[in-house]
């Protein structure tokens, strides 16, 4: 008796991956084995970079706060220490936004901390 293979399920699985790799360069978009490897690698990068994104944004916020605070002759570390002592509960994301887009409000916070 011949072996029966579930072609319907296999084709569906392959079509799903081929659809996801549409737009990739060269054989990554139209050769099954290459496309499958590219798809798997892309999922690995996506998982890794969801973690890295959080680190990168925190670094960006710290740089912006540091640049904003330096205008008032203070360092980032002294500012953050003082802001915690004063009990001001603003996170780095909000502080960076204030430093970039609302310099008057940020200046008021720096003066309150000094």
What does this structure look like?
There is one protein chain. The chain is an all-alpha fold and 114 residues long. It has a single domain, classed as c-terminal domain of poly(a) binding protein (Orthogonal Bundle), CATH 1.10.1900. It contains five helices and no strands. It has helices at residues 7-20, 32-70, 76-86, 92-101, 103-113. Helix 1 (7-20) packs parallel to helix 2 (32-70), helix 2 crosses helix 4 (92-101) and helix 4 (92-101) packs across helix 5 (103-113). It is rod-shaped and about 85 Å long. 12% of the residues are buried. The mean pLDDT is 95.
Within the CATH hierarchy, at the fold level, what is the topology?
A: c-terminal domain of poly(a) binding protein
CATH class placement: Mainly Alpha
Q: What is the total number of structural domains?
A: 1
Whole-angstrom Rg = 26 Å
Low-confidence stretches: none
Assign an overall shape.
rod-shaped
The CATH architecture is Orthogonal Bundle
Order of helices and strands: HHHHH
How far apart are the termini? Answer: 86 Å
């Amino acid at each position: 008796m011949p072996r029966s293979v579930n072609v319907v399920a296999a084709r569906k699985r392959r079509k799903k991956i081929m659809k996801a790799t549409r737009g990739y360069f060269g054989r990554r978009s139209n050769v099954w084995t290459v496309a499958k490897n590219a798809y798997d690698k892309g999922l690995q990068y996506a998982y890794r970079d969801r973690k890295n994104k959080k680190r990168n944004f925190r670094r960006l916020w710290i740089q912006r706060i540091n640049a904003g605070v330096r205008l008032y002759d203070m360092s980032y570390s002294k500012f953050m220490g003082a802001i915690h002592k004063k009990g001001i509960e603003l996170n780095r994301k909000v502080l960076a936004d204030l430093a970039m887009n609302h310099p008057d409000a940020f200046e008021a916070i720096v003066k309150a901390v000094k």
